[in-house]
């Protein structure tokens, strides 16, 4: 059986890598947030990026709903596209 280091190295090779430059002070804020949520800094970054992308989809869906409500229940031509994008 492989030891944990070998398994982790194999898993890491499958992940995409991207170097990020943080503005001054952001790394410390991210480190504190990661510790508070019991995650690694990498996991905290991935979690927050994922949440923001999901929020964008939800905002688009909610805007479409608002447009329908403001139109008296009739979808505008762009509302259908927005609601489909959010699903």
Q: In words, what does this structure look like?
A:
The chain has 87 residues and is mainly α. The chain has one domain (25-85). The chain has 4 helices and no strands. It has helices at 4-14, 26-36, 41-70, 77-85. Helix 3 (41-70) runs antiparallel to helix 4 (77-85). The longest helix is centred in the middle third of the chain and has 30 residues, at 41-70. The N and C termini lie far apart (43 Å). The mean pLDDT is 81. It holds the Pfam family Arc. GO terms for molecular function: DNA binding. InterPro entries: Arc_DNA-bd_dom, Arc_rbn_hlx_hlx, Ribbon_hlx_hlx.
In short:
This protein is mainly α and 87 residues long. It has 4 helices and no strands.
What are the key terms here?
87 residues, mainly alpha, 4 helices, 70% helix
Distance between the termini: 43 Å
Helix share of residues?
over 70%
How many strands? 0
Number of helices: 4
What class, by secondary structure content?
mainly alpha
Query: What does the largest sheet look like?
Result: none
The proportion of residues in beta strands is under 5%
Shape: elongated
**Oligomeric status of the shown chains?**
single chain
Secondary-structure element sequence? HHHH
Low-confidence stretches: none
Round the Cα radius of gyration to an integer and report it: 20 Å
Number of structural domains: 1
